[in-house]
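Example 3.2
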Amino acid sequence: QLQLVESGGGLVQPGGSLRLSCAASGFTLDYYAIGWFRQAPGKEREGVSCISASGGTTNYADSVKGRFTISRDNAKNTVYLQMNSLKPEDTAVYYCAAGPSVACLFYRTGARYDYWGQGTQVTVSS
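Structure, written as tokens:
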């Protein structure tokens, strides 16, 4: 069964940090671009970041640039999203998704992503 599982979410104070993980089972992530997305209550899904299969190319939404870092460890079949300087507006359910190499061109919309995880809740609040 092909599956993506996110973990690492939780409650954190403003200014704090979290590291999200996206682990794959049933397939290898080596040849997939991986995107992170988030959806806050009452809002549309937002593309946060994407990393190419090789890890050589990364993209970030303007809202997280300079605060979030995406990385991958293909040996562990896992992609990470390091989130620093968190703000209340970062509160959302965060999803990872896998797609073909061109998927990073569509990370803002989520188009061309074939596999999606169930999401992990991130809450930034004092």
